Amino acid sequence: MVGPLLSRSLLLTLQPLASEDVGALLDRAVADPRGLDGRVNLAPQAREHILRVAGADARKALTLLEAVADAALGLGSSTQDALPEITGEITERTMDAALVAYDKSGDQHYDVISAFIKSVRGSDVDAALHYLARMVVAGEDPRFIARRLVILASEDIGMADPQGLVIAQAAADAVTFIGMPEGRIPLAEATTYLATAPKSNRSYRAIDAAIADVRAGKAGVVPQHLRDAHYAGAERIGHGKSYVYSHDAPGGVAHQEYLPDSLRGSRYYQPTEYGFERTVTDRMARIRDMLGRDGS
């Protein structure tokens, strides 16, 4: 939303209807001449099932009621004088599963995917699987779900478990290869793995910090010993001079500066103590010592 436009607008937040409100709407739709006009009976079990599936969405509740009423009217009544009845059995058999409380083009689309990502990030595997199930049942594009898992694997798990990105990408490839409904299985596997994995956003924060420095003009000049020395005349102007080939150095780490002088001592990546990053923390301390950094 554009700020100036928002400041001149009246912003209203619509709250979900209560189950009692949607239930009253169903009862009125059954009896009202503009609705079913009392031509069917709505059994309590069927009524509860519609409410449960429609959630707080009155439009979905009415759509479901219309569908199951058509089915009941098509079957007729068991006796000549009785009205056709919408039973729980008819309701369960007739309902289109895609009418679950989720709208792929509306707010529910964004709310459910947001809850899904936040549940995985928050390590609540059961909640994550619940929201995944809602998207699967609603017919969400599995490639959309897979893409979000790939992003999450890098953003929220990162180096705490680098295998997370491998799992997420494998799930994305599997979904593309096998399609649905079987694609739900690798999606569930990836969701379970990522939700239970240790979490770190330090790689994500590191690149954003480095980008911020570059955009602020802190690029600096590439050190002479790191410049390309493969073209004719490069060595005469000092390119590559004094460069130490890392594989020839003790431990595979050469004591030399890699950052531009203006950024010497900068630290972007700060690993956590979680998962694999615990090992990375120890290794980075040794590397920085070998590089000749003072640890500041």
From TrEMBL:
Keywords assigned by UniProt, alphabetized: ATP-binding, Nucleotide-binding
Matches recorded under SUPFAM superfamilies: post-AAA+ oligomerization domain-like (SSF48019)
Keyword Nucleotide-binding: yes
Listed Pfam families: AAA_assoc_2, MgsA_C
Gene3D superfamilies (UniProt xref): 1.10.8.60, 1.20.272.10, DNA polymerase III clamp loader subunits, C-terminal domain
Domain of life according to the entry: Bacteria
MgsA AAA+ ATPase C-terminal domain boundaries: 122-287
Domain AAA C-terminal: 39-121
UniProt xrefs under PANTHER family: ATPASE WRNIP1 (PTHR13779:SF7), WERNER HELICASE-INTERACTING PROTEIN 1 FAMILY MEMBER (PTHR13779)
Stated name of the protein: Replication-associated recombination protein A
